[in-house]
Amino acid sequence: MSAATLDLADCSRCDSCDLALTRQQVVVSRGNPQARLMLIGEAPGAREDATGQPFVGRSGQALNRLLLEVGLSPERDLYICNAVKCRPPGNRRPRKSELSACRPWLDRQLELIKPRVIVLTGATAVEAILGIKGGMTQLRGQWQSWNGRAVMPIFHPSYLLRNPSKAAGAPLDLTRQDLAAVQQRLCEPWSAFN
Ligand code: SF4
Predict the structure, then answer these.
(1) Which tens digit of pLDDT belongs to each residue from 120-146?
(2) Is 175 among the domain residues?
(3) Which residue is closest in CA terms to ligand 1's atom 3?
(4) Is residue 4 part of a domain?
(5) Is position 6 within any domain?
(6) Can you tell me which atom of ligand 1 is nearest the CA of 101?
(7) Cβ neighbourhood burial of 113 (10 Å; 0-12, 13-18, 19+)
(8) What is the pTM of this model?
(9) Pocket test residue of 6, 13, 17 for ligand 1, highest count of atoms within 8 A of CB
(10) Is pLDDT of 158 > 60?
(11) Domain enclosing residue 25, as ranges
């Protein structure tokens, strides 16, 4: 399927990969479609599958707290989605075939939202968009570029839940710094992005 011809409303009926067999519902997005910032995660979890909203479980709540701490409203300032729109069974990592099958939906979202800045949470999202494989310890906090957009890789919030230390230099603190850099970047004039 070609991304340009897709109607996002049809995403809820998609059966292009086997995840359609085990999902409760397709999880397309939450937040503001007019936002200049798009956050892309890996795939929905159990709570997301049950509610139809991305990043609403414990990980999403941790993410919301960090966003608010740096002055970003999750509902006003971001459009939030995942690389794969249906929950992989047992929360396993999405397969390459599932990422490719779902990519046209993500491309359509990118076309419609036209974000200035993209935040990628976790290694799967980084690999899906940037094609970079590697440890998030090295990748996080390093600005990247994709199709003229500034891209910031950050730790996945589920990793932050497993590493809750509030010490300076711990993953939580580093992620707060990364999101603060994103917030600052959004305040720069449009010319700074080209
Ligand atoms: S994961 Fe994506 S491609 Fe697979 S069924 Fe869901 S919406 Fe369709």
Answers:
(1) 999 999 999 999 998 999 999 999 999
(2) yes
(3) 102
(4) no
(5) no
(6) 3
(7) buried
(8) 0.95
(9) 17
(10) yes
(11) 17-187
